[in-house]
Amino acid sequence: MVSSSSDFGKVKRTCIALMIAGQTLIGPSALMAFADSNAVIGLNNEGVKALNASNFALAIQKFEQALQMDKNYNLARENLAIAHNNYGLQLAKSNPNEALKQFHQAYYLNKTNATTAQNVEGIIRMLGKDPRDWKTRVAMADQARKDGDFVGAIVEYAESLKLKDDPKIHIKLGDVYRVRDNVDDAIREYQAAARSADSAEVEVKLGQALQAKGDLPNAVKAFGQALSFKPDDTDTLDALQAAWEDALKKDPLAPDNHIGLGQALQFRGDFGGATAEYKQAIQLSKGNNPTAQRLL
Known about the structure:
Elements: H1 28-52, H2 56-69, H3 74-91, H4 96-109, H5 114-126, H6 134-146, H7 150-163, H8 167-179, H9 183-197, H10 200-213, H11 216-229, H12 234-250, H13 255-267, H14 271-284, H15 290-295
């Protein structure tokens, strides 16, 4: 049981000095980029001042503003993780639940920081729970998700998977990533679930994530795999039709897109709509489309 903030680890604070040198003439676009860069660095430096003054809320605000201007500015990201970690230390005694949220944010931003990982486990123990118990971490993740604390849910689901690899948890984690618009991470989790326990549900979710990424061929493949599990599944049929309708919006003159929508409609029993799509594919192919003709 953790009894004091001294049991937690602090993260080294980081600062940056702004240096400008040289008198090279630059054009308007480069000047604007230079001004933006100065603004980002300025926000980071303001955040460092607030961090060193233990004004963690202000520090977090400044670092987040810097990242909004330049999401690739890693120094601000590292400093933001430090600010969340040290804010958690400040809150550990008075408000351990809020401290855990701060540690979650810090760990989400920098998963390689062993000190923050230890702080997450330490505050969980302070709350009277066992951080090495799989069911405990899953329950914490479920509660965080219910509360709309998606970062906390991501961290806790991921930590539970280190204790026990469970396809259902991969699905839950993938769902939270989709809510956060982290499509690549969602795809990775759904694929992990499919490798150990594939199902129509997993393939539909995978297909939707792939579609959101713009990877239509693999999305359709996933929907097709879902139909192999449940040929009459309404959710799968809806997803397959939506995928091809989306493809047609992007390229209405592509015969393959009309064939795909035709097949989706045919699966639903809409033979009139399917026939119209196959005929459209033939027309767009100047009367020569063996695939559409065969399906007719």
